[in-house]
Amino acid sequence: MLTENQYDNNSQNRRKFLRNTSMMLGTAALMHVPGVSFAKDFFTNQEHYTVQQIIDLIIKEAKLSVFKNTVDTIKYGSADQIVTGIVSTMFPTVAVIEKAIELKANFIIAHEPTFYSATDNMAQQETNTMIQKKQALLKEHGIAIWRFHDYSHFMQPDMISLGVKKKMGWEPYQKKGEPLINIPATTLKQLIHQLKKNLGIQHLRTIGDLQQSCSSIALLPGAWGVQAHINSIEKNNPDVLVIGELVEWETAEYVRDARKMGSKSALIVLGHSVSEEPGMELFVDWLSPKLPGMPITHIASGDPFLWI
Q1: Same domain, 136 and 256
Q2: Pair 234, 200 in one domain
């Protein structure tokens, strides 16, 4: 089991490893994995689905192979329990669980951790009362949770980034294989206003001149880490780097110093949850046609902060 620091330090290597593995193995290998090999019409001709069958279907339809080194595991519940309904979300918060109960949905597919650590490390289970209470709530209502993180990012295109691009209307402005989104020129202030409006975000943080022109955008929603942030600026020289979250003493200080030394790259910080939520909302549109008759709902976990 990786420690928190090891997970953070190796997250980019893990993403690269998973992507390369997927490309090498391809979908043919998926059909030889026990529990995943099935006829094309196996799901569409049945009335009931287990948690594992739905997970297998998602991996198959995403055209990926099963990852061995992944955080995408069942965090609570049984793989063979029958699913009554599915909820997609960013964080499986208590509020999201309560809404799932109201919907009589017993399978939550969440992009991020359930139990407050990157790998859902349960070493603190005996002393962490919140973990105990959350598990009791899930047990009482028979709810299973599966994390859909690595697979979503290694779909082609990346499901999470695609969600933001669709919400912003940016899809036509990025050419295949190019790292930057080149939108019609606007000011940093106007871009911030568009992001807030389209993504439903209350407040954003920025570093830069609000009147500077912005047309080339490097988009890294979620928590890519400082090295990915810096590499994007160093290699691509965008007008603005739009990210989910940062460590303030790393990326923020780099951008502040870089601008003082002549860099044009501004920074916009959306917030982790709200920056990736559109991807999990898009996931419902992607999954629903593949499970006809299954109730599938997106419940936004939302911004955890109250802005004063």
Answers
A1: no
A2: yes
Contact 154, 22 (CB under 8 A): yes
Is the residue at 87 inside a domain? yes
Over range 98-118, report the average pLDDT: 97
**Residue whose token pair is 């997927």:** 22
SS3 per-residue string spanning 96-152 = HHHHHHHCCCCEEEECCCCCCCCCCCCCCCCCCHHHHHHHHHHHHHCCEEEECCHHH
For residues 233 and 246, the answer to whether their CB atoms sit within 8 Å is no
Q: What's the confidence (pLDDT) of residue 272?
A: 97
- Structural domain boundaries enclosing 238: 159-272
278 lies in some domain: no
For 201, other C-beta atoms within 10 Å of its C-beta total: 17
Beta strands in the chain (DSSP E): 74-76, 86-89, 107-110, 144-147, 181-187, 205-207, 213-220, 240-243, 266-269, 296-298
Is residue 21 pLDDT above 80, yes or no? no
Q: What is the CATH number of the domain that holds 171?
A: 3.40.1390.30
- DSSP letters, 285-308, are HHHGGGSTT--EEE------PPP-
Confidence of residue 14 (pLDDT cuts 50, 70, 90): low
Residue 38: CA atoms inside 13 Å, Cβ hemisphere, count? 18
State whether 166 and 123 are in the same domain.
no
Cα 121 to Cα 250: distance, rounded to the nearest angstrom: 26
Distances in whole angstroms, Cα of residue 19 to Cα of each of 24, 67, 282 = 9, 9, 21
Question: pLDDT tens digit string along 266-303?
Answer: 999 999 999 999 999 999 999 999 999 999 999 999 99
> What is the count of structural domains for the chain?
2
- Same domain? For 261 and 170 the reply is yes
Q: Are residues 191 and 265 in the same domain?
A: yes
pLDDT digits (tens, 9 = 90+) for 44-82: 456 799 999 999 999 999 999 999 999 999 999 999 999
| Local confidence band at 27 (pLDDT 50, 70, 90 cut-offs) | very low
